[in-house]
Amino acid sequence: MGLKVERYERIVLYATVVVLVLAFGAIVLSAVESNIHLPEDYRTIDPNAVYQTPPFDEPGVYQVGEQEYEAVVVAQAFSFTPSEIRVPAGSTVTFLVTSTDVTHGFLIPRTVVNGMVIPGHITRITADFDEPGEHLIVCHEFCGIGHHAMYGKVVVEG
Ligand code: CUA
């Protein structure tokens, strides 16, 4: 009698472990399959020498392919340099962003662009801009007294 209960409990235990492993596996698999990942931590940089370190010594927008652009952006309290990024409609833009001081945010509402900008790190995010229009770039990481006034924009030209 006692032995039967033990075996039953063991089966339940094994079943629980199997279910947990399957559930975890399903999460990992779906993340891998749909290519979900955090914004890449592209590489590190000396936060005290941002404006002396390429490509941040020349912030701006650069055409790197037929419809591909690279936007090199420096975040500092309380602005983005450059504050305006202009690209033609149909562009794929890779943003490279770093900070000279504290942690900032880099959010472009209604796009996939949503990253943290950490001093010493380069945040790299790629997004498509198909429709002409204007997008705000918002710092959504509290960075000090001027946080609410820290924004830029992407102008997609038709
Ligand atoms: Cu920069 Cu908030």
Topology overview:
Elements: H1 2-33, E1 40-44, E2 60-63, E3 68-76, E4 79-81, E5 84-88, E6 91-99, E7 104-107, E8 114-117, E9 121-129, E10 133-138, E11 151-157
The protein binds dinuclear copper ion.
Describe this structure in words.
This protein is an alpha+beta fold and 158 residues long. Helix content is 20%, strand content 41%. It contains one helix and eleven strands; from the N terminus they run αβββββββββββ. The strands form three sheets. Strands 1, 2, 3, 4, 6 and 9 form a six-stranded mixed beta sheet that branches. It has a three-stranded mixed beta sheet with strand order 5-11-10, with no helix packed on it. Strands 7-8 form a two-stranded antiparallel sheet. The longest helix has 32 residues, at 2-33. The radius of gyration is 23 Å and the shape is elongated. The mean pLDDT is 91. It binds dinuclear copper ion. Dinuclear copper ion is lined by residues 78, 104-105, 139, 141-143, 147, 150.
How many individual β-strands? 11
Rough shape? elongated
Number of helical segments with 4 or more residues? 1
The largest sheet is: 6 strands, mixed
Structural class: alpha+beta
**Could you give the distance between the termini?**
79 Å
Low-confidence stretches: none
**What Rg is obtained from the alpha carbons, in whole angstroms?**
23 Å
Q: In percent, how helical is the residue content?
A: 10-25%
Instruction: Quote the average pLDDT.
Output: 91
Order of helical and strand elements: HEEEEEEEEEEE
What fraction strand?
Answer: 35-45%
Q: Compounds present?
A: dinuclear copper ion
